[in-house]
Each structure stands twice: as structure tokens, then as C-alpha cells.
Amino acid sequence: MPLWHIMPYTQTMQPSAPSASTPGAASARPLAERRREATRLEIARAAAGLFAEHGPQHVTAEAIAEAAGISLRTFYRYFSAKEEAITPLLTSGADNWVSLLSDAPERDPLTLFPRLIDEVLIPQTAAAREELRVTRRVLRGIAETPLLSTAWHRVNADSEARLRPILSELCGPDADPLDVRILATIASDAIRLGLEHWAAGDTDPDGSAGVPAAIAQQVFARLSRGLSRDFSE
Question: Which residue intervals are the DNA-binding region (predicted)?
Fold first, then answer.
């Protein structure tokens, strides 16, 4: 899950607004808003590429603006700091994660999440493999850049919060709200830890062998073990 999947986890949904997966959702949004989002995403891609190549600490806002083909003034219209520029990619990934969960036919989250983990973390195209390479290189530099680390954890926290109402519906009205919150936390942390632990290693650099997915599956299985009884009854 490239920076995008990143959670993670990120894919932000408002309850009353059409999601990106809803037919006609994109055309229903104002053109100016869509252009603004497209510009933000282009800047984010430029930032991610530079961060991956040179390390976040060696990249300036000026360099990101130049790579994105915009002025420095325009850059600061969208982001207050270079570390924030990568947020749209992280959020885009979380949006995908949330959208897949919303559209899934299964009703049991304990069997649903393992399938979704593979779906978001095992790249199926050359473009997806390249995104994971970039994600891995950016994640390696996050520890050395506190503001970038803050953005990463903020996106993951947001993803977790957005999972809760969807899981509440999946689990039904009798589900314990604490169990629902725990499950949202486990799902988000499984993706986050899968990506982070994979990025810190030296194997499967593009994720095509499924290493980040396998790690995330392990994390989810271990952390959700105590919930199995509650959600299967």
C-alpha cells in the first residue's frame, strides 16, 4: 500500500457526502474543488519522489515546488510546511482502505480484514510496485524527520476513527462499542506495522513478494485473537 495505502492506512469520508466510489461522486463535486485536490496530489507525488531519493531532511519546499511545476507561493497556498506535502498521498491510501471496507460483501470483519490486507498491500501492477518502492524509501526517512512522523501517525489515527462507524454497522447494533473501537485500532495498526517493519528490512523492496502483507496479517491475527469469540457469537 503505497503511501497511498498508508494507512495506512489516507482513502476522508463524511457521512453525508458521496464517497469516491459512488457513481457520479466526482462529477457532483465542484470543478474548483477537484482541481485543488488534483494539484495537492501532484505536489504530494513530487514531494514523495524527492523525499525517497534524497531523504526528507535534504529536501526543501522550493525543490518540491519546482518538481511539481508550481511557484513557491502556490506551494504555500496548499501546505504550510514541506512535511505536510506528503499528506494527500497518505490520505489517499486511507481512503482506499475505508472504501474497500464500505463496499465489501462480507459482514464478519474478522474474516474480511485479512482479505483486504492482501488487497491493499500486494501490488498487482508495475505502477503499484513502484509506489510501494517510494513508500518504503519515504518510511525509512520518517524516523529522522519528526514533523513527517507526526503527519504519518495523524493520518493513521484519522483512518482508525473513520473505520469505527463502518465497523459498527458491520458488527450490528448489539456489538460492544469498545470491541468495535479495539477492532478499528487493530486493523489500522496491522497495516501501519506491516509497512513500517517491512520498510525497515532489506527484503522484497517493491512488495511484490507480499512481505508487507504477510507482516500485517501476522499482526492482525495476533492482536485480534482475543476478539474472535466476541465477534463470532
Answer: 60-79
Which CATH number does the domain housing residue 97 bear?
1.10.357.10
pLDDT at position 230 over 70: no
Measured in residues, the chain has a length of 233
What confidence tens digit (pLDDT) does each residue in 31-64 have? 888 889 889 989 998 998 899 888 888 999 999 9
Residues 155 and 203: their CA atoms lie apart, in Å, by 26
End-to-end Cα distance, the chain: 32
The per-residue pLDDT for range 10-27, each reduced to its tens digit, is: 333 333 334 444 444 445
Three cell numbers written together for 172: 450490528
Residue 134 located in a structural domain: yes
**Distance, CA of 29 to chain centre:** 22
